[in-house]
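Sharing a chain and its predicted structure for anyone who wants a worked example. Both blocks are below, sequence first, tokens second.
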Amino acid sequence: MNRRFATFLDMSLWISALMALVYHVRFLMFVDYDAAQARSLIDQIFYFLTGLGHESFAVFFVINGIFVGLFLRHMPAAQGDRALLVRWWRSHLALVPLLALGGLLDLGGVHFLNGSGLYSDFPAFSTVTLRWTTFFGNLLMLQPALVPTFGSNGMLYLYAYLWWSCCLLVLLRRAWRSRTAWRMAAGAALLLGLALWMPPTFWPWLAIWLLGVAVGLRGPWPRPLLHPLAAWALLAAAIVFSRLAGARTDLLPAPWGELLMLWKYVIVGVGFAAVASVLYRSPMCAAAAPRAAPSSFFGRLNRHLADSASVAFLFHFPLMMLLTAIGADLFGHRLMQQPGPLCYALVGAIVVLCYAASHALVRCVGTRAGGLRPLV
């Protein structure tokens, strides 16, 4: 594909995963912004940027949707849907060792490193559930509708949202192409079943993911749909609005305020999809589909970071909890401290260790991107 577009996707992928990781570590290491006493300019910038966790989730979903759209675009219509599900299922097998390893880390933390109460007294961080029913329920993608996420890994609910979004897209595409009544009825029944089963939070993330699918499947465009400056301005405005709005449901009268908070990340997804569509302009051909290995050091680094991003996104929570518990129990570093050089250094160390562990897991498991990036 277009080298510029590929570089943009890779960079956006690992940056969004990194932002999600820093977002969660900051909640453990730093007090809330309102409780910060001396707010330097560095502190204000840090709190603003590390508050973009859910916005980074939206970017991640759009990128995943783009890869799905690109995958379907390069496959024959009759084979693409089945090949996509097979590809997802093979990658899904990588979830088994990740779930098991995350559970082992949580067991160690609960039994040996819970002096700070991290695993028991802070349900706002994560509710640790280590039952076998939860383990197998997460393997079957039944979280969060029927079972909680396994262990401390609250990020697993987004993985389930990706899986069911993919299944819904494939079955509806097959039903639409068949034009037969029973297939159309089966697609409608699936949609109705998901509507009754999934929590309301599923639908905004489905919409965000479909934005990416549309970019990958329907592009490239001979001319940009928006002026590049307008697309970047839209993305910046969406991020700033989402960040400043926070969780304020009083911005609009009830129930519109609650709906705005539920769907505001779709605005970020629209902004990022607009930028991606502007960059996705060069025609793609079968011979150019596999990307050549980047020749420069920074190009190779960008690609390696992107290959590890999905596992970092999926796996970082149990390791982050354990490393924080080690700092609290063995070295006396209290949770949620005022901003300071030591806290910044510890946040950086935990982030680097989590991302390095994710890269090692990708190499050991042998499945690039851990199932969250169907096209590689």
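Comments welcome. Residues 3-224+269-371 form one domain.
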